[in-house]
Amino acid sequence: MAAIVKIVAFFVLLAHSVKCHSSSSLSAADRISELPGQPRVSFHQYSGYVSVDEKEERALFYYFVEAENDPASKPLVLWLNGGPGCSSLGVGAFSENGPFRPSGNGLVRNEHSWNREANILYLESPIGVGFSYAANSSSYEGVNDKITARDNLVFLQNWFLQFPQYKDRSLYITGESYAGHYIPQLAELMLQFNKKRKEFYLKGIALGNPVLEYATDFNSRAEFFWSHGLISDSTYGMFTSACNYSRYVSEYYRGSLSPICSKVMSLVTTETSKFVDKYDVTLDVCIPSVLSQSKVLAPQQVTESIDVCVEDETLNYLNRKDVQKALHARLIGLNRWLVCSNILDYEPLDLEIPTINIVGRIIQAGIPVLVYSGDQDSVIPLTGTRRLVHRLARLLKLRSTTPYRVWFAGMQVGGWTQVYDNILSFATIRGASHEAPFSQPERSLVLFKAFLEGTPLPQEF
């Protein structure tokens, strides 16, 4: 821990050595006057770069949207997508819970945007994702969870220099998938930093379909496939005994794929079909599409993401020169902006390091945690996530203060929830995918609002 504190201290000093500009001039320079094809809105938008290492010329790109109404009274929410290597701008902001979605040559309003409830900060992290860049391409090599957490911490410190009005604001961190690694590690760094100097007013974290404990999360996939009729009884038997999914991924990333694992995965891939979206097994796929999801979560498989059609439009939109100019973005060492980075060399074995124990320490520090699952996701199925949350509650000796029950949104069942000692919550979002705010926007917004307010999910409509 002492080493971590020293590293943080070093980067804090580095972060504050940014060239001197007034914070007001910096934020004004990042103001977006209007995005091409954008409907008229009353809230302000900003985007641009924040340096995390002046010497090495490493900078992270952000997109910030103020709350629709009374932003001065609303909390600040940082959103992180996973991958590792996928864009919070292209996926989170423009496909999930941001104010706009690309349509044709322009943008349309998302009526269930999360900036109805908060000021939302989307961060393209780590370096090499989206518009985030380093002057030296070697910075894209050997990136890992520790580097990412450290950079994200420095980013926030320097972003607050540009937006000092948000420095003392209640802060929440939310995200999905591999952000189950990013978020707990960032939150723990914040808590460690705060012991020396109070700088982050962290009030809670929310993790959507997160990777928290590699074996449990991945090996619940076989049961999900079988229970939804996607694989045969015989393949299910092999997928649970001869070679489970965590073993397959472990062998794949060590370059030692065994014949039995190769055989099992070939059967699973054939039976589940490339025409079934693994991120939402009930949703039709977009045909044709050239997009694929994270290589870490689905190695060797070209699987269409739930929102591939939206992502295709996002890809086209964010590669327009007029859009990049409006966003104050530039491509460094790249020809095109991509949804998921093809230049980032992320340490794949970090996937195997559990973060559920870090979540436990965050709870012990008094920070509320919400873990939620879109219940149609076979990539990180709700069954494994629910087991992990329940096991953590037992380990921390937390009482069930809200027994497992349904919750409502839009006069329909929104999902199910259970709460432990009013600090650890689990919820499902009914009918939702791996990217819940895209597939169930209204239900996701209801969940998000309750999370920010610290209130129970609706028991009736």
UniProtKB/TrEMBL annotation:
It comes from the Eukaryota. This is Carboxypeptidase. Probable carboxypeptidase. One of its GO terms (biological process) is proteolysis. Belongs to the peptidase S10 family. Residues 1-20 form the signal peptide. It is found in: Secreted. One of its GO terms (molecular function) is serine-type carboxypeptidase activity. The keyword Mitochondrion does not apply. The lineage of its organism: Eukaryota, Viridiplantae, Streptophyta, Embryophyta, Tracheophyta.
